[in-house]
Specification:
Elements (H helix, E strand, L loop, with lengths): L2 H8 L3 E2 L2 E2 L27 E4 L5 E6 L2 E4 L9 H6 L11 H10 L7 E4 L5 E3 H4 L19 E3 L2 E3 L7 H7 L4 E9 L11 E12 L8 H11 L6 E3 L18 H33 L9 E9 L2 E11 L2 E11 L1 H6 L5 E9 H9 L12 H4 L24 E8 L19 H12 L3 E11 L6 E9 L8 H19 L2 E2 L1
Helix pairs in contact: 1-9, 3-9, 6-7, 7-9, 11-12
Length: about 500
């Protein structure tokens, strides 16, 4: 895999309180925040009661029923069906294996593992508890799957942060979960993916005044050491670039940062050492290179100071995760004001794609034994981890669709700010709804605004390709015709 591809695979990672940027994703979201060939209906556990106008009024997800309303409900059947899959809990699945590798570096009982939180959460959990402003783009229906105005599918594992802090069941924790976002269609993005966030806390009330920093340093000294070169040229905090919180002393912030960095360095060394071992098994001519790690100052809304961790791998620097010292107000709002500590977030799908060299995220959802059998037994013997071997490459069938946007929308040329605007994610949802995992990617290839009328025209290229069989011309034409029909019916566009 080329270094540019590896960079793409590593970008959807998140940190407590904020997602690392990537294409077509929410700007600086929280996480701890983000990545098929099957018939969704064949295994869906989600069911709905349909009203006379064919709009579901209640939806069942994992045995629980939720009320919907026409103004907010936007969860398509394929996404509902995915709530039953829980890939991070399926033994020998690459996402499960990746989770287990990371958990091995955060041992119990210091860290408690939470892997079964329900994916349906309230807006209070997903947004309000983390301080999202009312007008934050992450709240928009164009980005998030809603059942009603108060209930949604979580967009990040941070939706469970406040409840985990409040429960205060352990000194540290890891939360792994499936998360959902309306997203682009390509080989590295999918509306359902998996995240892990972790945290480590200390309780000031258990120590004499000022002694908590010494206790944290004692815990740092208990951590294993590694021999990887780490570049960390910046100070523990900076008054402008990476400020110290008023609630923390300089000694506390420095100690927390040191514990955070050592802990996460050990994790990435474990992941990338296993990746290099798998690469050497797959390629007799593989040339090993010393692993290098560097810390980069960052900004996340809910940690300060904050950092991103990058790893030099396969000839390029890869962003792996985001992290930082948890802001005191998160602990205070959760009812544990004496706590202080750190948190991080990472995207499991992207790490699994890199670890196993899996080229297409749709493969994670495949029920084809040619895929799943390659990982049998790895969960029980991580030393047997090996790279994915492609079992097929069926031909693609690209088709274009060009259309004028509605003139009543701002994107279509109407300057009124209160008009319903066009959003690219709506196109993605229509393609997914029709083609499912037979849509490999969707790209904007032309964007034209008429110089006289101001009307806007766009052209999207849809690449149809199955991972399991060759699509017939008739089948592809039928899919594309249905996509075109729904674009007209649902978005009111004018086909060119």
């Amino acid at each position: 895999m080329q270094s540019r591809q590896l960079r793409t695979l590593a970008r959807r990672v998140s940190c407590a309180g904020a997602v690392i940027p990537r294409a077509h994703v929410l700007p600086r979201l929280t996480p701890l925040q983000r990545p098929q060939i099957h018939c969704w209906r064949s295994y869906s556990s989600a069911s709905s009661a349909i009203s006379r106008n064919n709009e579901p009024k209640t939806v069942e997800v994992n045995g629980k029923e939720y009320t919907t309303d026409d103004a907010w409900f936007n969860v398509p059947p394929n996404v509902l069906a995915a709530t039953s899959r829980k890939l991070h809990l399926q033994k020998d699945h690459p996402v499960y294996i990746t989770r287990k590798i990371i958990e091995s570096q955060f041992p119990q009982p210091t860290y408690r593992y939470h892997n079964n939180f329900d994916p349906v959460v309230s807006t209070q959990q997903n947004f309000d508890s983390l301080g999202f402003p009312p007008d934050h783009p992450g709240r928009a229906r164009s980005d998030t799957y809603y059942f009603n105005k108060d209930t949604l599918l979580r967009t990040h594992t941070s939706a469970h942060q406040a409840q985990t802090f409040k429960a205060n069941l352990s000194e540290g924790y890891l939360v792994s979960a499936d998360v959902y976002r309306r997203d682009a269609i390509d080989r590295s993005h999918y509306p359902v993916f998996h995240q892990m966030e972790g945290a480590r806390m200390w309780d000031r009330s258990k120590y004499a005044d000022g002694a908590v920093a010494n206790a944290i340093w004692a815990d740092v000294n208990k951590l294993p050491k590694h021999d990887v070169v780490v570049e960390d040229p910046n100070p523990p905090y900076h008054p402008e670039r990476n400020p110290l919180q008023e609630a923390h002393t300089p000694a506390e912030a420095e100690a927390i940062g040191a514990h955070l960095k050592r802990s996460l360095e050990l994790m990435v060394v474990e992941i990338f050492t296993r990746a290099k071992t798998a690469a050497a098994k797959a390629d007799p001519d593989y040339k090993d290179e010393p692993l290098r790690v560097r810390w980069v100052e960052a900004y996340f809304p809910f940690t300060s100071p904050s950092w991103e961790l990058e790893v030099y791998y396969a000839g390029d620097w890869l962003e792996v995760l985001g992290c930082g010292v948890v802001k005191h107000e998160l602990f205070a709002n959760a009812g544990v004001p004496n706590q202080l500590g750190w948190a991080f977030g990472i995207g499991l799908d992207r790490i699994a794609m890199l670890l196993f060299q899996i080229p297409d995220i749709r493969l994670f959802w495949s029920r084809d034994e040619r895929f799943s059998s390659q990982f049998t037994g790895v969960s029980d013997d991580l030393s047997s981890l090996r790279r994915f071997v492609s079992f097929s490459k069926y031909p693609a069938c690209p088709k274009d669709v060009s259309f004028w946007l509605r003139p009543v929308s701002a994107a279509g040329g109407n300057p009124r700010t209160n008009t319903q605007d066009f959003h690219e994610n709506d196109v993605m949802e229509i393609v997914r709804d029709v083609a499912g995992d037979r849509a490999e990617d969707v790209r904007l290839v032309d964007d034209f605004t008429h110089p006289k009328t101001g009307r806007r025209s766009v052209c999207y290229r849809i690449n149809y390709r199955s991972l399991e069989r060759t699509l017939t011309n008739e089948e592809t034409n039928d899919l594309h015709s249905e996509v075109t029909r729904r674009l007209v019916d649902r978005l009111g566009v004018e086909i060119r």
